[in-house]
From TrEMBL:
GO terms for biological process: lipid transport. Belongs to the OSBP family. Pfam families: Oxysterol_BP. It comes from Cannabis sativa (Hemp). GO terms for molecular function: sterol binding. The keyword Nucleotide-binding does not apply. One of its GO terms (cellular component) is cytosol. InterPro entries: OSBP_sf, Oxysterol-bd. May be involved in the transport of sterols. Signal peptide: none annotated. This is Oxysterol-binding protein.
Length: 293
């Protein structure tokens, strides 16, 4: 594959980045919950954070056999190795001795072709161990989807997360249908948390979007990254298409909120309006933390 289609990083680097979160340490928060259900919800939040936006037309480098990637963040140390080239299999092991957390992944993609759609299922083992609580969470991942017409990439399908010791499970679907019957957006995620002994009696319902946790996906540099890149490259046609995609997605979300009689609420400000004084905003946080970028 020509280098023009590569992003400047290896697939092993991408795997390593999935384990930790840039702006919020969701992995260590899995340890904080006092009850099994609170810890399970924290594990789900971290799991959602491992889904990252994808860009059509660029892919990471295909790792060579024996290639390794070693990265640390705080007390978390991550080591990834390409243990097979054909088929492509990567192994990941991460430990945090302070928090007593272990992550073990061994995964490989299996592609299926159907018309203009290429669907890659990630097979293998994904485990998260909270040693302080003697809990092991086993999970798989949604499928990678590549559409040739109309062009696009994303995540889709159904996957599961379960805790072996507590019997808690979650079944999650990306890009499906919402509970009110409306078609889900490509980044929508719906599902339920239940106990393995009573699957038909959910403890919690999940209905939202996997890219809405935290601020990072709403950051201007992220929202308009593809458009900006195309403009800098003077690829005006592609820039126009990317801009149109963003605008159409906003219109679709607005239409969905209207159908549910929902009002969008800002995350970081309280907003009010009056004819006498116009618009007024006040921050919800007393202080602003350091920016991640």
């Amino acid at each position: 594959m020509p280098a023009t289609f590569n992003m400047p990083k290896s697939q092993l680097q991408c795997y390593g980045e999935l384990v930790y979160c840039v702006g919020d340490d969701l992995l260590n928060k899995c340890n904080i919950g006092e009850s099994p259900i609170e810890r399970f919800k924290a594990v789900l939040a971290w799991n959602f954070s491992t889904l990252r936006p994808l860009i059509f037309g660029v892919v990471p480098y295909n790792p060579i056999l024996g290639e390794t990637h070693h990265v640390s963040k705080g007390t978390l140390n991550v080591l990834v190795e390409q243990v097979s080239h054909h088929p492509s299999v990567a192994a990941l092991y991460a430990t945090d001795e302070k928090e007593n957390i272990q992550v073990l992944w061994c995964q490989y993609p299996v592609a299926k072709f159907s018309g203009t759609l290429i669907e890659a299922e990630t097979r293998g083992k994904r485990e998260l161990k909270l040693m302080n609580h003697k809990e092991t969470y086993v999970m798989n991942s949604p499928n990678f989807l590549l559409k040739l017409f109309p062009p696009g990439v994303g995540w889709g399908g159904t996957y599961q997360v379960r805790c072996l010791e507590t019997g808690l499970e979650a079944e999650l679907t990306i890009g499906g249908r919402s509970f009110v019957g409306l078609r889900g957006t490509p980044k929508s995620i719906i599902g339920k948390i239940f106990h393995s002994s009573s699957k038909n009696k959910p403890l919690f319902d999940i209905n939202g979007h996997w890219d809405r946790y935290g601020v990072w996906q709403s950051e201007s540099g992220v929202v308009w990254r593809e458009v900006s890149q195309c403009i800098m490259e003077k690829n005006w046609a592609k820039a126009g298409e990317a801009k149109k995609d963003i605008e159409e997605n906003q219109r679709m979300l607005m239409k969905e909120r209207k159908s549910k009689s929902e009002t969008w609420v800002p995350k970081y400000f309280s907003v009010s309006y009056s004819k006498e004084n116009g618009w007024d905003c006040s921050p919800l946080q007393k202080t602003i933390p350091p920016a991640p970028i």
